[in-house]
Each structure stands twice: as C-alpha cells, then as structure tokens.
Amino acid sequence: MAIWCYDGTFPGFLTLCATLVTQGEEPESILSADSLHDDLFSRTISVESDEPRAEKMLAAIASRISPNSCRLLWQAFLSGSPGVELLLWRYLSLGRTTGARIDRLTAHPAVAPVHRLAHTVEREAHRVKGIIRFQESAGGYWYAAVEPAYQVLELVAPHFARRCAGMNWLIHDRRRCLALAWNRTEWRLAGFDCEGVPPLSTDEEQWSTLWRGYFSSITIPERQNRRLQQQHLPKRFRSYLTELTGSPTL
Amino acid sequence: MTVPTFEEKLRILAESARYDVSCSSSGSNRGERKGGVGTVAASGICHSWSADGRCISLLKILLTNHCTFDCAYCPNRRSNDIRRVTLTPDEVAELTINFYRRNYIEGLFLSSGVVKSPDHTMELLIETVRILREEHRFNGYIHLKLTPGADPLLVSRAGRLADRVSINLELPTRESLALLAPDKSRDSILLPMHQVSGLIAARKGEGARAPAFAPAGQSTQIIIGATPENDLRIITLSQRLYQRLGLKRVYYSAYVPVTSDPRLPPLNGVPLLLREHRLYQADWLLRFYGFAPDELLDNSTPDLDPELDPKSAWALRNRDLFPVEVNQAEYEVLLRVPGIGIRSAQRIIRARREQRLRVEELARLGVVLKRARHFLTGDGICGVKELSSDRLRAVLITAAKRRSSAVQLSLFDTAASVAVTGEF
Questions:
Q1: Nearest CA-CA distance, residue A44 and chain B, Å
Q2: Residue B418 has pLDDT above 70, yes or no
Q3: What ranges in B253-340 are assigned the alpha helix state H?
Q4: How far is A98 from chain B (nearest CA, A)?
C-alpha cells in the first residue's frame, strides 16, 4: 500500500492533489509528514510543496469546479481532522466530473461531510472573534493568546484588521505556535514560539480589573445558571479570558 | 458613607442595568470610517457569558441609577433604598473605548434612570454617544435607550447616532402600566416608538447616501409575570409591534422581585423562566416561521404549554396535516415540522433539487430527526411507527427533556441563535 505524504500545509496538499491528477493515481492514504509513522509494509511517496503549482491547482479548481469549492476545501482543510485529506481528495475527484453542480450536491456522501467540517471551522472562527482578549504591552502593541480547536487565525484576520485597524496587534495561537500580526497596513501569519506574556503597559491592570468587576456584577443572581455559561465557554478558551482569570476585587 | 471608587460605581451601575435583557449586537450595517475605531458585524458577536448563562456582547450600563420615577418592578425606583451613583458622559465614553480596544465588548448599551426631567436625561445619554462618535471616532455598535416622554427632536438625534434605539413598553396593557409605573404614561412610551418607526421607514426611501437612522432598528421589552396578562395577549401584542411598527425584537423579561421586604414569600423563579422561554419560542415562530398568534393560542387555551415547545404543541393539534413528504413540501410547510429549523429547511430545499431525499440523506444534511421523523416521510418512507397522540406527546416531551438537560432554559440572543435565524 502506498502512503502519499505532504508537508501538512494547504499549498502542500494542493501540490499533492495536482501530482495525483497528472499521474492518474488513486491514493489509499494521505498523511502529513508529522503524522507519519514507520510502517514496514507501506511504501511512502513524498510530494514536495510547490507554491506556483498549488496556485495553479487552486485556479483550476475555481474555474473548472467552482470558486465556492476553493473556500470550502480550505476551510475544511483547516480543521486538521484525521483523514480530512482523503475526504477532500474524494470531493475533488467528484468535482472533476460534476463541475459547478457539486455546490448543489449537498446530500452526496462525498460532499456532505466536507460542508460539515467547513461549517465547524467557521463556527470556531466566529467564536474566536468574540473571545480574543487583547492586552496592551509596554512596547505599545496589543497581544492576545488563544488556543482555538482549529487553525482559524487566517479566517479571523480580515475581521481584526478592519476592527482594530489603528492598533499594532499580535494574536498568538499557542497550540500551534503560530502568530498573526498586523502592523496597521497588512497582516502576516508566521511561526511564533514564545512562552509567557510580554511586559504589560501600566494601564492594563486597571482596565482588566474594571472588566472583571463588571463581569461579575452583570449576572442576575436569581437566574444563576453555571451550566449554561460553561456550555457557551468551552474549557480551551477559559484560561485566556480576562474575566475568568485573576480574582475579582470586591 | 465613603465616596465610591470608579470601580464601585461601574459595578453598581451594571447591577442597575442588568434587568434589561437585550444584548444583541446584530443587524447593523453602518459602513466603515477611515481613521475610526471599530466596526459592526452584521451577525453580531458574543464576547462572553455571565454566570446566569446570558451572552455579553455590549457594555450594558446606566449613566446614573438616580431616578425620579417609582416603578414597582424596578430596582432603581425612587423609594428603593440602594446606593446611588453617577458617571459622566466622558467617563462612560472612555470606559467603552478601552473595553472595546481589548475586545471585551462589541459596543455600548446605554440607559439611565430619569434625572431632573426626561429631556435632561435624554440629553445626557445623547451627549455620551456624541462624545464616542465624534471625539473618539467610535464606529462600533451602540444601543441607546430612549427616555419615556423625551422631546421628538432628541429622539431623532438619538437615532442618528445609535445603531439601535429602544424604549421599553414594560407592561402589556395600559392598566398594568398605570398600576405599577405611575410616572410613565402609555403615551410617553408609544409616541417615541411611533416616531422612531416612522423615521426608520422614511430613511428606507431615501437611498444609500442619506445619513443612517438606527440601522439596526428598534426593539422593546415586556416584563412577564408581574401582572396577570396571559400569553395570548402578550404574543398578540408582539405581533402588532412587529407588523405595524416594524420592530426588530420584543424582549421578554421574567419578573425578578427586586425588593428587600422580608414579609414577601421567597420566589421560586423556575416556572417563570420557563414561561419566558416558551414566549421566546413563540416569538420566533411569529417572526421567522410564518405562524399567527391565533394558530398557537386561543381563548380556550390562552397560555403556552409548559411541557412542550409551541411548534410541537401546534403539530399535535394538527396531525391531519402530517406527515409531509420532504421531496414535495413547500418551504413554508417544512418550517412547520417540529425539529426543522430555518437552516434545515433551506438545506432540504437546496439538496432536493439534485436528488430524491430519503431519511438517510436528511441525517447526512445535519437535519435533527429526533422529533422531525414523526412528522415527515423521505421518499414515501417514514421510518417510525405511527403513534397515538398521547404516546407521541410523551415521546416529544422526553426528546425535549433530554435536550434541556444540557440546559436550554435560556434563549437570549447569543450570536449562535442569531446566525441560525438570520436576524438582520
């Protein structure tokens, strides 16, 4: 059995798909290099990521299948869900025979799961727009740390670029060691390995204390419903929320 | 008494504001401004959830909790012995901007106790918003409360600065209002409401270039359970507000007795929260599902069924209309199937253009079948045995219980529910 292997990036995956198409291969397994384990009985075929080739592949998907497919593939890919590559490859193969009609085949077994994954990723991105907490650093830029379930930084970048256009900010995905940075002109995603929080501005403590106070006072005690609160605030977000960390002063 | 710190003032004014339900930040479409601070998001964004499970989207605060009115249901009523504090318009603007930059909030929800006169109060509220918009160049979401009896000129200024304006109806009838809120006349509430509704309608005819007027519309709030009106009366009123005045939302607030009087019996709040929940469900059916109040309730059954959601209750009374065939039924008919929401109905319509749908495909589309399967067929096949109405009722109640064990008692406007129903 052959395992097709790529570098774990979206361009890498697209390059791999382009290779499969030109060679007329049907893969039984597609894995990113870091999830590959030694397997004596399998042959591994590695495909190097090739930016221009990936671009061309994406353009071909947009014109021969549909622009919506590009977005869908990317979002579903960001889920990083095990086996997603093969799922997307099957979706692509179907798309090559159906063309734009694939957008309407929403109940097809090769299409429905892709929509579902993309939708889940989109929901996480929407959540992240709300739960990010910026802290003003002594150096004058704004820092936020977050551990989203999926790699959604690029999906939220346009939102924060518009909303916080006049601030220099950095959003740190700690789980993936990535950071999204905005310098008031453009945003960039890059690897970022850094423990801890930058030194904060002298004002920061004052505002976070006020926010914690507000947060506890806005609760109607007669309606207390912790379970409902926790249902909306998954664990992965809680340690980064200003209002749930530190102790509120009375 | 010591002078309160800024933090204490903030906490007191948040406590005084928390009984106003609305925290929605959706539905506005004001464009961006170069060099301004912030944006609005059409679908609304929740930033946190308080310990009562309600979404926090806006900084909800009063300018002051001093009040010359003496409304029986309100914690800030003149005769209530609480600590009174005031923030200046500048302080509120500064607080909003700093919370906003940190992404704590989506914007501001500003209200106030009535000080000196309704006009004076309205002027202070408007001044706060003016400072935010003009001096801080704040472009985020602002929900501004109108003061009952405020001058029409002030009302129209408010609408030009805010994304949404609202004035609370408070109680469903003129008589109840006179009884519990002697300082507010029904007309002092209805006149600004009518004025805003007229100005919003007029703005729609003016084209994209005209200055915005309350682009996220107008809302109101009704207190439930402090007076004897039944559910039929309440949802009929809501329907009129939606149809005649074009309101975006009517909020229902289960009455929480805010009093320190030890002679009153302790309140068991749960049934009232459940009633509030059912009213929100019925309200959704009016706005997005094409139901009329008299389909849900009538004079012989004037209150919503506490055990069952109003759509299931309606379907049980109209079993001759079911099952519906998902491959043929019109969109409006699909929407009436218990368990099928707007998103599911849309998915079904889109998918069936390309293929016949069986129950299997419905599941693949993400349609939740627990309740729905008793009311539909997929390509002629139902998949469950037909049950007597009593059995079916029991099954539906159990299905709902399982769901609400994950706590569904609160249907405040979370971004999720907004996204599902597409309230814009």
A1: 33
A2: no
A3: 270-288, 293-296, 310-317, 331-334
A4: 12
